[in-house]
Design brief:
Elements: H1 2-14, E1 25-28, E2 31-34, H2 37-46, H3 50-53, E3 61-64, E4 67-69, E5 83-89, E6 92-98, H4 105-114, E7 122-124, H5 134-140, E8 145-149, E9 169-171, E10 181-185, E11 196-199, H6 206-217, E12 221-225, E13 234-238, E14 244-248, E15 252-254, E16 260-262, H7 271-282, E17 290-293, E18 299-300, H8 301-305, H9 310-330
Parallel strand pairs: 6-7, 7-8, 8-9, 14-17
Antiparallel strand pairs: 1-2, 3-4, 4-5, 5-6, 10-11, 10-12, 12-13, 13-14, 15-16, 17-18
Helix pairs in contact: 7-9
Length: about 325
């Protein structure tokens, strides 16, 4: 189908080690065999070259009016998906680069096309695993402010990158997810303005608290500390166009086993803590209709349900969340 073809081209473009290729010849038992004319046409269609086949590149891929999947996945971040998201923060139209693309001239041009010639205003680093080459990007866009959580420093900085200690915005403080509380931050949080507590317990109206937080900080963005996958994992909540939650490796969609939402339990640091985090995220699901993770695939509930019926959308979200929580528990 056309969807399968587009997905295959996206996989070809996204593979960080170029293990998926389009070729003009086949090799069988060491013998080179030229492709048939029909096979040549297929190979041409898969080529990532609009001048050759007139087919647009798979990336950047628009997820909503304000969000793009950048492409340019890097093997240094295990192929994590970077995103650009736009919105307003304290009266200014801004752009945020979520996690780190491969550092290359073509990636730079893509980022500039989605943000500005001076690059994004912020680089949001969801967790330690996906930070490689952040310093190269900072040198290229010196006005860009990097956001990272201190929980992934010290013994949890397994890549040994001490330059992360010098990011412009280093978040401190932890969510008390064991008691149903998320710590929320503004994009430009400092030690003096350290964060806000969002009570996600069953008896609390977390959605109202988040709406108040958006107003109080005058922003379309809220940062949430989401521990579990790593101590310093953070998520970015963006409220426009139905809302998007950028989750890093905390929560995402996998096509394995028929497809389901997952907390990637094989790779988590503290699965019990991550269960509590996912339960909190499930209780604020009215705030987002799309989950954009670092691995797996974006999960756009409006697209999946194909309806404007809020009830069915919310039921789908809750079922997905419960499945991911159950999977995490099965690994404990």
């Amino acid at each position: 189908s056309s969807e399968d073809f587009l997905n295959a081209r996206a996989a070809l473009a996204a593979c960080p080690v170029s293990a998926i290729r389009s070729t003009s010849q086949a090799v069988n038992d060491g013998n080179v065999k030229l492709l048939t004319p029909q096979e040549e046409e297929v190979s041409k269609a898969f080529a990532l070259n609009p001048k050759l086949n007139g087919i647009p590149l798979p990336f950047p891929k628009e997820l909503s009016k304000y969000v793009w999947n950048v492409g340019h996945h890097s093997e240094k971040t295990f192929g994590a998906a970077p995103y650009v998201v736009k919105g307003n923060h304290q009266g200014k139209d801004i752009s945020v680069l979520v996690d780190v693309p491969r550092f290359s001239e073509s990636a730079i041009q893509t980022i500039q096309s989605l943000s500005s010639p001076d690059g994004p205003n912020y680089m949001f680093l969801t967790h330690i695993d996906d930070t490689a080459q952040h310093l190269e990007w900072k040198k290229r866009f010196p006005n860009m402010q990097r956001i990272f959580h201190s929980g992934d420093l010290g013994e949890h900085n397994w890549i040994g990158d001490e330059s992360l200690e010098d990011v412009e915005i280093l978040l401190k403080g932890a969510s008390d997810v064991e008691n149903g509380k998320l710590l929320a931050f503004s994009l430009d949080s400092t030690v003096k303005n350290s964060g806000m507590t969002i009570d996600c317990s069953k008896s609390s109206d977390a959605d109202h608290q988040l709406q108040e937080a958006y107003l109080n900080i005058d922003s379309d963005f809220i940062i949430l500390h989401t521990p579990g996958h790593s101590p310093g994992s953070i998520a970015l909540l963006h409220r426009l166009d139905g809302g998007t939650l950028f989750t890093g490796d905390t929560y995402g969609y996998t096509t394995r086993d028929g497809g389901h939402m997952t907390g990637f339990p094989r790779f988590g640091d503290d699965l019990q803590l991550q269960v509590r985090t996912l339960e909190c995220l499930g209780r604020i699901s009215l705030q987002y209709d799309c989950v954009a993770s670092g691995h797996g695939h974006p999960r756009n509930y409006r697209h999946q349900v194909g309806s404007d019926d809020h009830t069915s959308v919310e039921e789908w979200k809750h079922a997905d969340n419960e499945a991911a929580v159950s999977e995490l528990r099965s690994y404990q």
